[in-house]
Design goal:
Structural class: alpha/beta
Distance between the termini: 44 Å
Largest sheet: 7 strands, parallel
Helix content: 25-40%
Order of helices and strands: EHEEHEHEHEEEHE
Number of strands: 9
């Protein structure tokens, strides 16, 4: 169930979703799942995927994001779900951070999310829609060289909670999905990672949940677990 809308003709049209970074990996799987759920899914991609409903968009540009959303809304007239999945994976120790790459990663991984949510909120309020922010275990399990990835993922927790406080009165639900290891690369069949389809099915459930349920945050872990390098009481001294 996708919520309600003030538009009396909207019931005759499929619900509309926007997915960023839908050209590969988890974003591609999310698009497929929402397609199967009967939604009209639009992708905002930096790299073209060949998807029939795709808008080329540089997520580092506020003007490009606004124009891309305008293009989708002009064609659809509505928006029921937004999934912010695109990410810039830049890794470097703090002492070696390149200022330009840091700024670019922060823009794509956090600023673009805020920009997109802000632009989409009027339509999501109208449809009483859903926002899904794709976080990561990196937002709470930090690692060396991961500042440009971990910091914005951690900030998504704050964004999701603020949106839950501000937008539930307007009927908009926000969920933060924080997955562990995902087999995003073609040919990766590791039993210690989740498949992209499995993660996508969780996103689909969040969007199609009954409208009186708001799932604030969901953490996903691979069911398979490798033998620990450090175990028992020694874990207390491992970080």
């Amino acid at each position: 169930m996708y919520g309600t809308t003030d538009d009396p003709t909207a019931g005759r049209l499929p619900p509309v979703a926007i997915v960023t970074g839908g050209n590969r990996g988890t974003g591609h799987a999310i698009t497929a799942e929402l397609d199967q759920a009967g939604m009209e899914v639009w992708q905002l991609n930096r790299t073209p995927s060949g998807h029939p409903r795709e808008v080329a968009c540089d997520l580092s540009s506020t003007a490009a994001l606004d124009a891309a959303v305008d293009q989708v809304l002009e064609r659809t007239g509505r928006l029921d779900a937004l999934v912010t999945n695109a990410v810039d994976r830049y890794f470097a120790p703090v002492a070696e951070l390149d200022p330009e790459r840091w700024a670019a990663a922060l823009t794509v991984n956090l600023t673009s999310v805020v920009t997109l949510v802000r632009r989409a909120l009027p339509m999501l309020r109208r449809s009483r829609g859903t926002i899904v922010l794709m976080g990561s275990h990196a937002g709470s399990r930090f690692f060396e060289g991961g500042l440009a990835y971990c910091a914005p993922k951690a900030a998504l927790k704050a964004l999701s909670e603020v949106l839950l406080l501000e937008e539930r009165p307007h009927g908009v639900r926000t969920s933060l999905v924080s997955p562990g290891a995902i087999a995003n690369e073609d040919g990766d069949t590791s039993s210690l990672k989740m498949t992209t389809r499995s993660v996508a099915r969780v996103v689909r459930e969040l969007i199609t949940n009954p409208p009186d349920v708001a799932v604030g945050e969901i953490e996903l872990r691979p069911a398979g677990l490798a033998p620990p390098v450090v175990s028992g009481l020694d874990r207390l001294q491992s970080v």
